[in-house]
């Protein structure tokens, strides 16, 4: 404003001079004109000068305004708290950040003073700092102090204050920047606490603790290191470790560290460290990597643990372990020896028990087929029942022994579940019928009929449970229910429940079940009998098949025994008859049989049974005689005992197979019934296995089975079918062949099958037909007699023998009826056998007529070898 005022004053002065000169022009002439011009120029210069100052002033004012705006914006939006304090320490100007930190509004702060917000313990320190600023000792001051927020919370802040002079003496205002450092203080406190804990831990643990850099070089040891090694602190830790490490451990330590650093994993190694006295002790070194936020290793934290005492204890322990291992090996050898001795003892006892049992059972079978009065038949049946009970106990003990020895192996074959039930229930119905007890079974719709597993063991469980239910039930019925528990893929868990209306059991009696040789009570054992092995074996079988077993029972109301087993779906559909391949028996009667047996009783039983089945037999006492007989005579099948004097039955079979690979089938007929005996027989070259005691039905079936497996591989069926053979072995002229007849009508005899079964051998065909015509009247007579007596077992045996004979000559239709009679007898329906027998007799007559028309009469058959008086062959038993 001064410059403007001066400029305007100068302009007025020049203007006044110009006016004075103007009035003087009129009087002064040219001189005056020059003076006027000069004055005018002065006026112009003064005006320009004034205008220039005005512009500069306006620019300065604009810059000042802009600078003030920038300052206010910076002050307001600064990331730090900012405040301007007056000389009286009151708030003159505060920004939003400071208000946010302290929790006050700008107006609230301006109404208070600085000291009111300071923590009481911080006021003196702040006063000292402000005093230094006021006394010009320092232009700025930086310090930390605590403030109290509006909500009462204490907050740490770092203050940076600058004094602003007002141009006068005395304290001026101050510009202060505030930064909230509460988190920094907290983290620092935590770090200090962590360091303190680490220090206490490092110095307090009994191990040597250490820290290494990212490359594994030691940088720090705790006090334990120095106490152990005697080193001085503040030395080179990495060098100290290398000097203390046993020389033999350096190479391995280097490898371990290289692997840990390369893979970024933990380090671990056992090594020896030298003590202050120069001795070495074993230590276990371990280290873990510490990583930063980018997972890069920044250092390693580790320990060295003294394991010298553990090493020595380990050596002592290993010595004891080795010693104990030797003792256990000796004990195990002793146990194995005892187990082998037990198995050997059981095998021997089985053999010794089965050998006389074979004689008893065999003779009873033969006795039952003879003429007996009612009292004699009851005695024979009682003997048979007792013998079967004894045999069941022997078999139970053997099964239990196999399970305990871990030698019980389950089969895995396809079977039909309804056939297993029928095979089990049918004979048990016969036992239940005299008591008026119904035996029923129901299979749920969702249960697959074709399954895969061990039907034999499954049948044993069911036989035991259903048999017990029938035994302990006086009236009512026994129900077997089969359900699907669950199915997972091919795996199927099938549940079974056997419910009876018998005597039931108490809780204390239930607790005793499923144990070996256990009965519910002594009175029950005395009243109903039994060895107590059945449920124990059933439990073991269920467990072997991946299942479990249990019982629910109410005393006086009955019991429900349940179990479930793990099975699979069958790999292929199972035929309804339960067999995957039908092998029709060959030569079921009139066979030449060699029996190799050293026991005279068993010789007699075997030969008489074979005779009863319609076969010719010769018996020898040892394997050497057996080989001689085979080399000099022709036999259709050979039965041999396994335990023979001198050369065993296994050696006999092996020698025979070596000499005659395609010779007659060999069947083991032995009292050995332990696990592996059958496999041992097959491995020796035998075709089948029959455990003593032997029954007629079992003998007949094994003969059929063995002959079927020994058929020649080369077939001549095409040649035989091309032309039928006459009795002389030559092809019969077409005009003499029987008419084909109606192809829809099944002929009584399948001549094609008869000729195929003997490989086109006319002589063999004549012998089979002749034997049948000789034996059939006797077989039919025996069957009729057993039907009249209503002997279930007798009907089964006679019908089975007749069926085999009919199948041998191709009389399939008649054989089917004979099988029906056998099945009816097995199910206890003896009365129904009488009606079916009438149909069987009609078909038998048709078979006889068909055979007679073939001109294969008995008188055309030459005498069989051994028919002479001096022959050792025992022929079929023919009733005169």
Helix/strand-derived class? Answer: alpha+beta
Radius of gyration over all CA atoms, rounded: 59 Å
Portion of residues within helices: 40-55%
- Largest pleated sheet: 7 strands, mixed
**Which stretches are low in confidence, meaning pLDDT under 50 for 5 or more residues running?**
520-531, 577-587, 712-745, 856-872
Average residue pLDDT: 77
> What's the count of strands?
22
Number of helical elements: 28
The percentage of residues in β strands lies in 15-25%
For the terminal residues, how far apart are their CA atoms?
170 Å
Shape: elongated
Give structural attributes.
7-stranded mixed beta sheet, 5-stranded antiparallel beta sheet, 28 helices
Task: Describe the structure concisely for a colleague.
The protein is built from 28 helices and 22 strands. With 880 residues, the chain is α+β, with helices and mostly antiparallel strands. Helix 1 runs antiparallel to helix 2 (30-77).
Walk me through this protein's architecture.
By secondary structure, this protein is of the alpha+beta class. The chain has 28 helices and 22 strands. Strands 11, 12, 13, 14, 15, 16 and 17 form a 7-stranded mixed sheet that branches. It has a 5-stranded antiparallel sheet with strand order 2-1-5-4-3, sandwiched between helices.
């Amino acid at each position: 404003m001064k410059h403007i005022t001066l400029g305007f004053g100068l302009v007025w002065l020049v203007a006044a001079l110009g006016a004075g000169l103007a009035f003087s022009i009129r009087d002064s002439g040219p001189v005056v004109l020059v003076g006027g011009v000069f004055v005018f120029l002065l006026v112009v210069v003064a005006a320009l000068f004034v205008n220039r100052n005005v512009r500069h002033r306006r620019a300065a004012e604009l810059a000042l305004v802009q600078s003030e705006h920038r300052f206010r914006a910076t002050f307001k939006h600064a990331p730090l708290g900012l405040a301007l304090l007056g000389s009286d320490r009151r708030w003159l100007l505060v920004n939003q950040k400071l208000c946010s930190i302290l929790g006050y509004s700008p107006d609230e702060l301006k109404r208070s003073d600085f000291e009111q917000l300071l923590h009481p313990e911080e006021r003196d320190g702040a006063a000292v700092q402000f005093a230094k600023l006021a006394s010009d000792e320092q232009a700025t001051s930086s310090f930390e102090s605590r403030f109290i927020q509006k909500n009462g919370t204490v907050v740490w802040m770092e203050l940076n204050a600058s004094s602003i002079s007002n141009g006068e003496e005395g304290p001026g205002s101050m510009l202060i920047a505030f930064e909230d450092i509460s988190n920094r203080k907290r983290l620092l406190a935590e770090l200090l606490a962590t360091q303190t804990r680490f220090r206490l831990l490092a110095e307090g643990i009994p191990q040597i603790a250490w820290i290494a850099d990212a490359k594994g070089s030691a940088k720090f040891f705790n006090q334990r290191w120095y106490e152990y090694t005697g080193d001085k602190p503040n030395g080179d830790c990495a060098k100290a470790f290398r000097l203390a490490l046993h020389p033999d451990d350096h190479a391995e330590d280097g490898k371990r560290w290289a692997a840990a650093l390369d893979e970024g994993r933990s380090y671990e190694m056992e090594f020896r460290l030298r003590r202050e006295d120069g001795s070495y002790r074993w230590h276990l070194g371990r280290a873990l990597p510490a990583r930063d936020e980018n997972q890069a290793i920044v250092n390693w934290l580790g320990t060295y643990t003294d394991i010298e005492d553990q090493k020595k204890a380990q050596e002592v322990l290993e010595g004891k372990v080795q010693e104990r291992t030797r003792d256990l090996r000796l004990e195990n050898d002793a146990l194995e020896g005892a187990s082998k001795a037990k198995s050997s003892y059981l095998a021997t006892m089985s053999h010794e028990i089965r050998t006389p049992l074979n004689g008893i059972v065999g003779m009873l079978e033969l006795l039952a087929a003879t003429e007996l009065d009612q009292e004699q038949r009851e005695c024979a049946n009682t003997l048979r029942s007792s013998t079967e009970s004894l045999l069941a106990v022997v078999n139970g003990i053997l099964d239990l022994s196999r399970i305990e020895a871990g030698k019980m192996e389950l089969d895995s074959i396809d079977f039909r579940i309804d056939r297993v039930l029928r095979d089990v229930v049918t004979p048990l119905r016969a036992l239940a019928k005299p008591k008026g007890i119904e035996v029923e079974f129901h299979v749920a719709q969702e249960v697959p009929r074709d399954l895969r597993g061990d039907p034999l063991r499954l049948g044993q469980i069911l036989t035991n449970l259903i048999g017990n239910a029938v035994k302990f039930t006086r009236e009512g019925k026994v129900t077997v229910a089969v359900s699907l528990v669950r199915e997972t893929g091919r795996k199927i868990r099938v549940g079974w429940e056997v419910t009876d209306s018998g005597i039931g059991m108490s809780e204390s009696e239930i607790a005793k079940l499923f144990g070996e040789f256990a009965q519910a009570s002594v009175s029950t054992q005395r009243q109903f009998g039994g060895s107590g092995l059945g449920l124990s074996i059933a439990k073991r079988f269920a467990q072997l098949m991946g299942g479990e077993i249990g019982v629910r029972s109410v005393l006086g109301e009955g019991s429900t025994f349940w179990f479930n087993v793990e099975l699979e779906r069958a790999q292929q559909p199972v035929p309804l008859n339960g067999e995957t391949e039908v092998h029709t028996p060959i030569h079921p009667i009139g066979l030449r049989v060699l029996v190799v047996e050293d026991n005279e009783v068993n010789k007699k039983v075997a030969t008489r049974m074979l005779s009863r089945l319609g076969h010719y037999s010769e018996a020898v006492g040892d394997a050497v005689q057996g080989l001689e007989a085979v080399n000099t005579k022709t036999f259709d099948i050979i039965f041999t005992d396994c335990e023979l004097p001198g050369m065993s039955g296994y050696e006999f079979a092996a020698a025979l197979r070596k000499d005659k690979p395609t010779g007659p089938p060999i069947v083991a007929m032995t009292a050995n019934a332990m696990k592996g005996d059958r496999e041992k027989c097959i491995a020796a070259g035998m075709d089948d296995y029959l455990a003593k005691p032997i029954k007629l039905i079992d003998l007949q079936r094994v003969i059929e089975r063995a002959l079927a497996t020994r058929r020649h591989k080369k077939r001549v069926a095409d040649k035989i079918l091309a032309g039928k053979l006459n009795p002389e072995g030559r092809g019969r002229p077409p005009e003499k062949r029987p008419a084909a007849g109606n192809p829809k009508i099944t002929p009584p005899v399948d001549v094609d099958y008869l000729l195929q079964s003997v490989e086109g051998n006319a002589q063999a065909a004549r012998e089979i037909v002749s034997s049948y015509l000789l034996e059939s009247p006797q077989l039919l007579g025996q069957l009729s007699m057993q039907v009249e007596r209503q002997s279930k077992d007798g009907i089964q045996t006679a019908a089975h023998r007749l069926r085999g004979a009919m199948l041998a000559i191709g009389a399939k239709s008649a054989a089917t009826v004979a099988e029906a009679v056998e099945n009816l007898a097995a199910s206890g329906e003896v009365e129904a056998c009488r009606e079916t027998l009438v149909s069987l007799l009609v078909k038998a007559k048709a078979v006889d007529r068909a055979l007679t028309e073939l001109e294969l009469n008995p008188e055309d058959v030459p005498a069989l070898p051994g028919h002479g008086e001096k022959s050792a062959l025992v022929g079929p038993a023919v009733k005169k």
